[in-house]
Structure prediction request, 621 residues.
Amino acid sequence: MVAAPISAFEMYQNQKKKSKKRSSKKKDKNKQPVKVNDLVSAELLKAVSVKSNKDVNVIDDTAQSSNDLPAKEELQFNIVEVAPRLKKKKKKDQDKQNNVEVSSRKEKSKKKEIVHGEEAVDMVDLDNEDDGNESGELKSISPEELNVNSKILKNKLKPASPAKSIHLSDGDSSIAIAEKFFSWMIDPIAKDDFFSLYWEKRPVHISRKGNRDYFSKILSTKSIDEMFRKHNILFGKNVDVTSYSSGKRETLNSTGRAHAAVVWDYYRNGCSIRLLNPQTYHLQLRELNTRLQEVFGSFVGANAYLTPPNSQGFAPHYDDIEAFVLQIEGSKMWRVYAPRDSSEKLPRTSSPNFTQEEIGDPILEVLVKAGDLLYFPRGFIHQASTVPGEHSLHVTVSTYQRNSWADLLEKLVPAALANAIDEDEEFRKGMPLDVMNHIGAVHSDSETPGRYAVLKKLKKLFSKLFEYAPVDAAADQMAKEYIHDSLPPCLSADEKKCSVLENSERMVSDGKLQGAVVLTPDTCIRLTRSNVLRLVSEEEPDTLKIYHSMENSLEYHGEELQFIEIPLNFAPAVEYLIHSYPSFTAISDLPLDQDSDKVQITTELWERGLVLTETPLSTSE
Prediction:
């Protein structure tokens, strides 16, 4: 049997094996950050008991959690302040622990006075398997069983203060910082509890009676008005005008630019306004999205919905995304319905509009007020309407669209079959002469020996197919799509001063250049973000491609996917930077033989904004 030609991916793998692994001269200083909101234990949350047939569970949270998501002028963060060091003396740790225990006891005593009502965390339990509910009944959790003691976010996101010298911290991972954003968003539920108990399973409503301004810095009606006046926002592309009445949903878009006067005339007449990509025009929301995409490893989008009092903009439907509703202003009555059957659980496409008769009774009906968060998984039917006398502005943050095992298998199985056909004679052998007399619709109920033999053979081939599955290559193709989907990173002021964006030569006057910078073997660098690039081997035998999101458009797929081609022998240096992140590495420590090669690959990455230096490069006057 003639050996199949070696692929570029195999050449890359062989190159990796031949490369000598060099130990880093620096130890990885990256440490897991302290959990910000580790206050709702999984054990307590699983103490479930059936309370009623309404299937709604209530946890009252009256603490005033911090809403310190920075406003536009405060958006540039000092990374050291966002993810503080975990180097504290034992005495300080003990003092802090004692203070937390005292605070916890005080909160617990306050809980006894809480009146159960709409100001709460509402949870719907639909996951029978996880909770051992064989009867299929929905379960509920009372506030007493959960005993939630909400606490304020300790590591608040603080604006950077002017510094005489800039030194980016070695060890502050962009993922760790992103997790703080996510923890802030879902406070008081701990991140681990959220993913084990709610994610892809059931809705949850978090009410913040003590802080109705919690999400006020993300967006506002005033900032939306400014968007329409300052930007070329187009009907149908960037904004939709909708209405829903008498069971009928309509889109009422005009054409061309959506001027503020035209949009507000629709709004005055009872129409809802949906902004399709507000993060493009609003920095605070974009910062939130770019951080969250590091948490989910998936595109994070956002729609903003502005609805006048006593109206509804959309018919009941379900979506193909995980939805986080952040209520900014006003309030909205939400009704959430369970998937109607197993085929609608975790769907990969959104549904058409439903009639009221098709969806049954809601499992969750709640008035979501400013500062609240409502989460529901894909496949859960939902509708929302405003109450008389109060408008509503909310942002739906969405993620995990087409990010399932099925999506990976769609890329993996055809590639595995192609490899098996090329490399394994058994897949190319002819089928039995009478095979069509045993399989097909008319033979589906047959139990003949011939049919049994055919099915047995197919099962054997399917089992063998995995041996030829290029798992890593298929994963790289999915990662490429994520890179293209992503928003470009939002860099802090200090990060910009340590990147090509600001730490570079300038034209000052009269055609004169000033401030040239040079990378040297002693320069210490790291990737701009954990997931900013992907090293991929494709068709070309002697080169690899570095796909990256640094030059992505602020509009979804507004630009072609950007990449850099590098020689195969440069791959170990890029791998080294990926695996050593978030630690800074001296260029001289990169595992290449020639210093000139080390500087060359680093310069290519630097010029695309894909690496930061530990301190700003010295400039020549």
Summary: The chain has a mean pLDDT of 81. Residues 90-111 form the longest helix (22 residues).
